[in-house]
Backbone:
């Protein structure tokens, strides 16, 4: 069942989303060569608590961290470790905040370049890809997210969001991960409806978008093929099957009569 929010719930989500956006921005600033994943996780937790929120991901059964971190071929749900970020890594950070019993969810992917020159030595990422290829890949994900959110209007359907994301991602020769999708968000971190980054079937068969629906729109995509696999033995970390680079962009929004409004900004 799709949970329509009241004005008070939306205001609480707006407050929690502001906390989340500020925290994620600060954590991304610290994602530099030599900094470990666990250091970023600790920083995120400290900042969220200091600002009056609660780490939303720590409330997920079996997950004991504040962020999920996805480096290079990791797609989603990467558990923070002692791994230290290197120049040339593609780093995705996903984080959630619980405020007044309501969740917001947000993710961003960055390309870690030299802090001095802002360009990579020899112009390559740690995966061997050219710097320009990574830049184009990430720009495409951001553009797909923006266009998907632009479709989140009263009277449209989830399929309009899905089609917009898929069109941009596949139009540049990349692959949408079909086994992982966006979602409703609020009292639970994951609520109805599912919001895929691809369209399967007739748009009119997808859920209708209504005023005061709150959803997390996600672009989850790979430079290579769409297939993903579990890596290691933690039952969380999902990676690309072909070891290609992956990217993740996500924002929580509310659908209003005036159009989509960001709650995580």
Residues:
């Amino acid at each position: 069942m799709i949970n329509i929010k009241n004005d008070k719930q939306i205001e609480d989500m707006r407050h929690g989303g502001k906390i989340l956006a500020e925290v994620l921005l600060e954590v991304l600033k610290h994602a530099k060569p030599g900094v470990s994943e666990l250091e970023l996780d600790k920083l995120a937790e400290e900042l969220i608590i200091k600002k009056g929120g609660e780490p939303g991901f720590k409330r997920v059964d079996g997950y004991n961290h504040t962020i999920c971190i996805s480096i290079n071929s990791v797609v989603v749900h990467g558990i923070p470790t002692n791994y230290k970020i290197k120049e040339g890594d593609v780093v995705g950070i996903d984080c959630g905040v619980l405020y007044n019993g309501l969740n917001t969810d947000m993710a961003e992917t960055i390309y870690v370049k030299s802090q001095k020159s802002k360009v990579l030595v020899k112009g390559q990422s740690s995966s061997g890809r050219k710097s320009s290829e990574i830049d184009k890949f990430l720009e495409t994900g951001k553009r797909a997210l923006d266009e998907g959110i632009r479709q989140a209007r009263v009277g449209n359907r989830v399929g309009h969001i899905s089609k917009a994301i898929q069109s941009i991602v596949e139009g540049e020769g990349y692959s949408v991960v079909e086994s992982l999708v966006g979602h409703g968000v609020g009292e639970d971190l994951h609520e109805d409806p599912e919001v895929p980054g691809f369209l399967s079937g007739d748009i009119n068969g997808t859920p209708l978008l209504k005023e005061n629906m709150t959803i997390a729109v996600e672009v989850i995509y790979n430079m290579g093929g769409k297939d993903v696999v579990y890596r290691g033995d933690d039952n969380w970390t999902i990676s690309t099957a072909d070891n290609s680079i992956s990217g993740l962009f996500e924002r929580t929004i509310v659908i209003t009569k005036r159009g989509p409004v960001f709650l995580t900004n």
Remarks:
- The first helix runs from residue 7 to 29.
- The chain has one domain: 7-114+134-262.
- Residues 36 and 83 are 5 Å apart (CA to CA).
- The longest strand covers residues 246-256.
